[in-house]
Amino acid sequence: MGSVWALFNMSGGVGKSTLTQNLGYHLASDYGAKVLLLDFDPQASLTTFMGKSPTSFSETIANSMLDLSLPLPLVDEFEWCTLAPTNIYLAQCEIKLGGVMQKETRLKQVLDKVSGDYDIILIDCPPSLGQLAINCLAAADNLLIPIQTEYKSVEATINLLQMTFEITQQINPHLKVFGVVPTMFDSRVNSHKEAIEMITEVFEKLKANPLFKDTTIFDPVPRGIDFATATRKHLPLGLHRKNHPALEVLSNIAGSINQTIAPKEEAVING
Ligand SMILES: Nc1ncnc2c1ncn2[C@@H]1O[C@H](COP(=O)(O)OP(=O)(O)OP(=O)(O)O)[C@@H](O)[C@H]1O
Ligand SMILES: [Mg+2]
């Protein structure tokens, strides 16, 4: 079974989709992982970042969520990953989910059917605290929280931590808060450095809670214009600028994620 990772923060524009695409790329290219990228945001940024037009899909994850007998629509044309695309219909799906049985675990039920085909599934979550976000946290084994290195983003994240705690109590006791990734960091900006200190303080205080005991605060992803340029070219940064200084940080985070995946050969030998 592939492990399922939610990249989530309900704050908008903090780098969730960019990080999902780039970590997926490094997991595949640096560590040989078989990666499924799941776009679970009705804005469909990840689908667009991968060069696909959201409106070109008549069937998406939204259909699979509402009718569990339908397969998960996939795009398999990329060298380094498979994409489960989405579009605005996922917003309607969120409303329709109100009336279905076990609405919080519909995504988990969809992913359980395909997770055996991948080492890792990265979910690009929507910037909201609604039913779609709850489905992401209910389906995930691990949560990775991108936080923009701004005071506002750090403050907002505190609500997310409360929600995560409630989800582990009520719906998904297996969920681990694996790590925090500070994003868009500029070391010349004092408020960015203060935001990192604040993140460290918040998570240090939370260590007493078992849910946050092993949470890693990763090195920050630097701010750089090349991220947006790569996105416009529908490429991860590593395929746009092979020697970009931010690649080392991204590869290291991917390496930590990869360490949680049991090596296949070993699993066969031991099993
Ligand atoms: N490290 C970075 N440096 C500079 N710009 C970045 C960086 N990471 C992301 N961006 C840019 O910031 C913008 C928002 O990024 P992204 O779409 O990944 O955020 P998001 O959290 O997924 O947003 P939303 O909440 O709307 O889904 C994009 O224009 C992206 O190119
Ligand atoms: Mg996004």
Task: Tell me what the structure shows.
InterPro entries: AAA_dom, DNA_Partitioning_ATPase, P-loop_NTPase. Residues 4-177 form the AAA domain. This is Chromosome partitioning protein ParA. The protein has 271 residues and is an alpha/beta fold. It has one domain (3-263): P-loop containing nucleotide triphosphate hydrolases (Rossmann fold, 3-Layer(aba) Sandwich). The protein is 45% helix and 13% strand. It has helices at residues 16-31, 45-49, 61-66, 89-97, 106-112, 131-139, 151-170, 190-206, 225-232, 237-240, 246-259, 264-270; strands at 3-7, 35-39, 82-84, 120-124, 142-148, 176-183, 216-217. It has a 7-stranded parallel β-sheet with strand order 3-2-4-1-5-6-7, sandwiched between helices. Helix 1 crosses helix 11 (246-259). It is globular, with a radius of gyration of 18 Å. The two termini are 14 Å apart. The site of adenosine-5'-triphosphate has 19 residues, from helix 1 and helix 9. The site of magnesium ion has 5 residues, from helix 1.
